[in-house]
Amino acid sequence: MKRKLFPLLVGGVFCVVVMSLYRMLEMMQGAELQHLEAPAGQDFYRLQQQIDKLERLLSANNRLVVTLRDSLLHRQAPQGGGGAVNVSAGSAHSPADAPPGCRLAQGMKGRADGVQLLDVYNLLPFDNADGGAWKQGFEISYRGNEWDEQPLEVLLVPHSHNDPGWLKTFENYYQDQTRHILNNMLIKLTEDSRRKMIWAEISYFSKWWNDIDEQKREMVKRLVGAGQLELVTGGWVMADEANSHYFALLDQLIEGHQWIQRHLGVRPRSGWAVDPFGHSPSMAYLLKGAGLSNMVIQRVHYAVKKHFAQQQTLEFLWRQSWDSSPRSDITCHMMPFYSYDVPHTCGPNPAVCCQFDFHRLPGGRAMCPWKKSPQPITEQNVQERALLLLDQYRQKSRLFRSHVLLVPLGDDFRFVEASEWDAQSGNYQKLFDYFDQHPELHVKARFGTLSDYFEALHRRLDAMGTALPALRGDFFTYADRDDHYWSGYFTSRPFYKRLDRTLEATLRATEILFSLALAEMRRFRGDGLLVADFPVREHFRRLTAGRRSLALFQHHDGITGTSRDPVVVDYGTRLFHSIMNLRQVLQSSAHWLLLLDKSQYYHNQSKPFMQLDDVISAHNALPLKTPLALSNEPRSLIIFNPTEQLRSSVISVVVDSPDADVVDATTGQPMAAQISAVWAEPTQASTEQFQLDFVAELPPLSLVVYHVTKASFGSAHRARYTFHRRGNPPAVQSEHFQVSGLERPEADAPLSLSNKHISIWSSPETGLLQKLRLLPGPVREVQVQFLWYGTQRNQDKSGAYLFLPGEEGAQLYSSSEPPLVRVSRGPVFSDITSCFRHFTHTVRLYHLDGHAGRSLEISNMVDIRSEFNRELVMRLVSDVANGNRFYSDLNGFQMQQRRTLQKLPLQANFYPMTSAAFLQDATSRMSLLSAQSQAVASLRPGELEVVLDRRLQQDDNRGLGQGVTDNKLTASLYHLLLEDRRGGAEEVGGASVEHMSLLAHLTSLSLNHLPITMVAPSDSQVPKLRPFLPLRSSLPCDVHLLNLRTLEDSQESDSPSQEVALLLHRKGFDCSSAPQAPLQCTWSAQEEYSSLQVDLDRLFSPLRFHSVRRSGLTLLREDDQPESARQPAPPHVARLRPMEISAFRVEVA
Ligand SMILES: [Zn+2]
User: Fold this and answer.
1) Which residues form the Glycoside hydrolase family 38 central domain (predicted)?
2) Active site residues
3) What 3 state SS string does 681-702 have?
């Protein structure tokens, strides 16, 4: 006890001293800056020097405080007592007392309430039996008197599915179809108040709004107010739910909801997702958090639909797997039949339903493929037609528990012509009138919106005293017929799936720095105004455009890779331009924040003060590092740490000298560095460019400055290389580096690398990983393999959507000539690179103390442009005894258990992986963390494989009309983590809920939010820069700052308000795999996990909040806590529930 108390005491005293010094310096600085404004003579220079000195001292102290605080916290933690600075109601814990931290996970294990989709999968035979008229279902019967007491209430919901890009670009669809659809909607709904319509895609709606005049806008508002037009979901797009990350999913929802609130003053109540290729509970969580009460989903495996129809569970309360309460429940309606078009929505028989799509009347362009055309409704046929339709309605109604029936009326890009409105509403009105005139039929039908339907449903359920069943799980992997599983799109166009995440990380970093810069400016001026030279509006417009590009790409034909080639180019160009534009905002914000003398700020768009250290030349190119010219004058490197954690990171830049020094610009302290070769060819090192890597200690959200100078010969540690190639030793050119080990006698010995935590052994022949040892544990089997999948030889072949591999399964990758293997060893990192014809594969170990040293970095550069109908896979083969179970993430938000089932075809056992997957047994867990979305499977025990790229020559008959052959040189990045588990033996049965470990969370955070390196100009006139340290300590390691997003001014459009959306995600985590050495951060105690009070002022100190108000996830005003709950002065307290995202409307300074 004494031993622990002493450093604590010393640390505490030190903190107090440093803090008072800080206050004093701050006061002095303020006073002296005032003096500076007066005309000064020779004193000026001396004064400036003094300030410089003080600044250096101040920064050094600040950073020391951050480091000290972090280390104190983790030292203090094992005692488990209170007193943690961040958390008021609990305590900080370290892995030493791990089990209490797992109560949440434990509490969730084996929950039996409601329906668990994994159990349904175990139960179903997947026999694809012929169901008759409803091919994938069954014959539905009824007596006819079921509705005598409670009449059937039918709500016909007109809709038009508008893809923001697919066969045409967003712009072309808008010009050719969408604007006409919306214009007609306005006229036709105004004509007849009985007509209704729903609209989902705000990207289109907002574009159209900009085109229409004030009078039309007033008409729109009237229609919305009268309940004739309903905006459903209200997202920027109808988002993909497999590949999209929850940051982007939420951001596109915020963008849409904010637009709706501003222009229409309403909020969406019901969700509508009829086309995404499978459905995720993460989306359900976000919709619920955004204040929606209901949702509709459609693309669900046909066998699951049939089962749910038999059980009358097509309507259910979708509950999060991890939620032990009904808090996350949202009412969900699953459409029972094959599609959302008219033939598949009125009832089970498409041949009949198609006759009630009056857009397909004879003489028009559209027809019914079932050979029976619709007929206009006349006095002569109305009885026969009405009864035919009623029969379908009644059959469909038997699949649901209430007597309210939802019948969508629409299809892709419907109501382009005004005449379609006349045809649909005229004919249906006659049928509705007929029903009204015949009360003996016990049916009422009318046009309605989605919320009309759900209101009626809830009314009926309440009256019946019936509650809907709860359901847990997800709806992947989707199959629409036979063995046609939609697992191809989990990987299609992987280049853009990765570019998406690059934009996402850039956007988040920019949002945070921009918000902080604005807050600092207001504080600096003291009058709440911004600095005149800072292009606030321009930058806010860039930020908005960036948000919208990322949002647009979340569309279910965007990030999925299922658009035509020119549309892919259009998306890619938008992503690329947004990254470029956001970088300007980022650079400019960092510039202002770093300047010691703010009066030196200027904005020059064509020649920014600082620039990122890499260049992306086009939408289809990978980033390329810009070589830095070094001299004896120090070059300033500015590093931004976009994570809320203090981290040791390896910063990598390209320089023009093999000798360089890196020092911390504030303290002058030299940093550990390594010079490596830049390989122009696999065996030829560049003589002009060199890679400089150094270890940077980066406080949370900080901007830190380093100086790089050209050093004397031999000053920096250079990497040493060995080359291997079986049979044919390579000739290596590398004049600045030591090369050895060409084909020596011991060449059969495995190649090995190790750092403090891990040792690895690789094949001398291929360089691929074979064994791994987590020190001090035993040597484990972990092999890396590469394999090819081909496609079926029959008519149905893989395409952009479908994965239809040949019967032979995966074939081991083999090459005619042995690969070149290059091993590099240095003090900062060591790696093994294998150069194969179709890919370059690198496994790297960092020699770092922090969490970065505890995982293996894997990177691939893939090029399969020469191939024909092939998919390349990376497979890990381990000795983990996971049986047929593994876990993959859903949208980076939660983990979902997967079961590999032999009764399903191979392609059905592939799942989306947005950021993580793991295998585990009683004693260990192997996690693969990724920086891009792709397909994942565990086909045999111990195995985990990811699909890297796919090149497919043909269309797969889902409307796209082409294959995927626009492959590019594509990068992928991972961290592989092996962890010991304790108490994991119970993990064998049940649909258990699992979380990533804290170490895995931190590793994933670092992987997805790499430090951003900027370079200042080389001239000696560089103004004085000081580090920017907005946080005094790291956030607890289970709390993630999802975003700090400046909101738009409510009066002045395109301008930032003083309000910022603070989005915090408290992650669930697993403690059975606590790391051997403790982590450098604390986490919240779980004893009171449901009511954890967090003091935001202490969490974000010295960042200050003027006021804090909790709001809904999309920051709608009506979701705000009442004015009385506003917290104008400290303490600003927030409740953070585990697994949950919390949104606050704050004013920050
Ligand atoms: Zn669509």
Assistant:
1) 484-575
2) 275
3) ECCEEEEEEEEEEEEEEECCCC
